[in-house]
Structure formats: structure tokens, C-alpha cells
Backbone:
């Protein structure tokens, strides 16, 4: 017989053994972009390379996901069903992450305050839909967005906590330069290194 012996109850003078099926153990998954393999087991000894395998799972109460620094090529978008006492935990290790736009989930979102292209689907770094009791921590992690994206999207979620990390853009969302010297006839400009440009026949093109 499988299970754990809970105890012995007495009912009408008869001894009754009560057994319970063992609870599922919490899982620990690991993503290491620099050395992982999406065909691996997803453990700390054999980590995944991207979030793709993780996004196919449903994370349950007490489950943990450990993420190491590197280049992120997919959205973080698993299903998550934690509990108040045992939330799902996503733990980004301290370091620098580069989130690439090309492979991210893209959705049409109703954004009221700033949406210059309302019909265009938006790339999303962290896409949470119907998630409950989740803790996402960073321990000082820095996410560089490689392309324009929505950093965190939540829909029909409950009890979500985010802490210990920051987002920034690897390249400014608009081209930038600094005017070093200006005369009536010309100007000396210092262009931001992440703002590519082309100067052809006196014409500046960003």
C-alpha cells in the first residue's frame, strides 16, 4: 500500500488505519542562458537555456525557478498556481540580463495613457495571465531591453509581488545626441553610442 500512515482511529470499538497519499514535492527549475539546453531536464545540474520549456508548465505551490544572468530570448510566461502560504517563486540571480525582443510573446493591448500605435501588437517580457500567489525577485538583477517592449503585463492575476530588479533600455527609445559646440554655420554633435546614424552628402539619417 502506498502512502503515509496518518494515525489510528477508533470507531465503534474497531481500530481503523487511515492512509493519505503523499503530497507532490515542490519542484525547482533552473534556466542558465549561457550554458543551458532546452532539451535538458531543467534542473540545476542540467538547466534549460530559455523560458520556452518552462512556459509549457503549470507551476504549483512551493515551486521555484532559478534564473542565471545572460541573454533571454523568450518571454517569461508560465502558468502559476501558488498559494498564500507557499507562493511560486521566480528568483533571478544578481547580474546583467539582455532581453531580446524578437522571440517575445506579442499581444494587442489596450493601453490608455501612451499608445502611439494602438493596433500594433506589443512585445512582452513578463506575461502573466491568470497567475496567483507569485513572487518574482531579483537580488539586484538588471534587465536591459533590446528593443521596445512592455516589461510586465498582468491579466486576471492575484497576489503578485515583484522586487529587487530594474529594467533599462540598452538603446534609447529615441535617437540621442549632445550638442558640444554650436556656431551660426555648423555644430559639433556627440551622438549616443547606441544611436546608429548615417551621414551621406551632408544629410544625417538615423
Residues:
Amino acid at each position: 500500500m502506498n502512502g503515509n500512515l496518518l494515525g489510528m482511529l477508533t470507531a465503534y470499538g474497531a481500530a481503523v488505519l487511515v492512509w493519505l497519499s503523499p503530497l507532490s514535492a515542490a519542484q525547482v527549475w533552473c534556466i542558465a542562458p549561457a550554458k543551458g539546453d532546452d532539451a535538458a531536464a531543467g534542473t540545476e545540474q542540467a538547466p534549460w537555456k530559455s523560458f520556452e520549456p518552462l512556459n509549457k508548465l503549470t507551476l504549483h505551490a512551493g515551486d521555484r525557478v532559478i534564473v542565471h544572468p545572460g541573454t533571454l530570448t523568450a518571454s517569461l510566461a508560465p502558468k502559476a498556481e501558488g498559494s498564500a502560504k507557499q507562493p511560486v517563486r521566480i528568483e533571478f540571480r544578481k547580474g546583467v540580463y539582455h532581453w531580446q525582443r524578437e522571440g517575445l510573446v506579442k499581444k494587442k493591448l489596450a493601453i490608455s495613457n501612451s499608445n502611439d500605435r494602438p493596433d500594433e501588437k506589443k512585445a512582452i517580457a513578463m506575461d502573466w495571465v491568470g497567475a496567483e500567489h507569485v513572487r518574482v525577485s531579483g537580488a539586484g538583477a538588471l534587465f536591459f531591453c533590446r528593443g521596445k517592449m512592455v516589461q510586465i503585463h498582468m491579466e486576471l492575476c492575484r497576489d503578485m509581488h515583484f522586487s529587487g530588479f530594474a529594467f533599462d533600455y540598452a538603446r534609447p527609445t529615441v535617437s540621442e545626441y549632445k550638442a558640444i559646440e554650436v556656431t551660426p554655420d555648423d555644430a559639433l554633435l556627440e551622438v549616443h553610442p547606441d544611436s546608429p546614424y548615417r551621414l551621406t552628402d551632408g544629410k544625417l539619417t538615423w
User: Anything to note?
Assistant: The longest strand covers residues 132-146. The chain has a mean pLDDT of 87. The CA atoms of residues 182 and 188 lie 6 Å apart. The two ends are 72 Å apart (CA to CA).
